[in-house]
Amino acid sequence: MIEGLFGRKLGMTQVFEEDGRLVPVTVIEILPAVVLGVKEFPSGKRNAQIAFGSVKEARLTKPILGIFKKLGLEPKRYLREVIIKGDTLPEVGQEFDVSLFDEVKKVDIVGKSKGRGFAGGMKRWGWSGGPATHGSMSHRVIGSLGPGTFPGRVIKGRHLPGHMGNARVTVQNLKIFSIDKDNNVLVVKGSVPGHIKSLVFVRKAKKSS
Q: Over 80: is that where the pLDDT of 153 sits?
């Protein structure tokens, strides 16, 4: 079936494990998705076109709205493609919800990290900074970056101040703590990239043993 589903990060909380340990968890609302079609590529790769998220018809363009009317489906806010795993192809109109993760123990979560704007080297890369006392006037500035001798220039790829965050981040092997099918909620152990109510993609862990 499909590789995974999209959801919204609702926030973090704490729960107790069976041995009494208190662990941090992230609560994710899985958005039920409907299949619009299947795309097959010459390489053998197959993708499923899915739609999810409620929306008013007035907020959609006519071409997008026409896709749903042609298939006789309720309009959705988001249209995405996900990889199909296995030999079974999903049917047009088939719906998926949090039950997709019933037999899954660990997941990978892909999201966009919080944007921090322009950040200096100490905040962005953890530089130690200059001396804090003895009359030093250089505390958080960059200082010298190039080698003292050859080649006498700043090497390409050097960590520098710049735009921090707002980038695609994948967190791997997060343990599923619990599943609430009534509310389509998935609770995973650990933190997830992005701000509250941000869109994340949840899939079965690729490197899980």
A: yes
List, in order, residues 6 or more apart from 68 with CB less than 8 Å away: 36, 51, 74, 75, 76
Domains of the chain and CATH, by start: 4-204 (2.40.30.10)
Nearest in space to 196 (alpha carbons), one of 80, 55, 28:
28
Residue 8 has pLDDT above 90, yes or no: yes
Whole-angstrom Cα distance, residue 41 to residue 5? 21
Report the alpha-carbon distance of residue 97 to residue 101 in Å, rounded: 9
pLDDT of residue 209: 66
Beta strands in the chain (DSSP E): 4-16, 22-30, 33-40, 46-52, 78-83, 95-96, 106-112, 117-119, 162-164, 168-180, 185-189, 199-204
What is the identity of the amino acid at 73?
Answer: L
Q: Which long-range contacts (CB under 8 A, 24 or more apart) does 143-148 make?
A: none
pTM higher than the cut 0.85 = yes
Phi-psi region of 166 (alpha: psi -120 to 50; beta: other; left: phi over 0): left
Q: How far is it, in rounded angstroms, from Cα 178 to Cα 23? A: 13
Distance, CA of 94 to CA of 83 (rounded, Å):
15
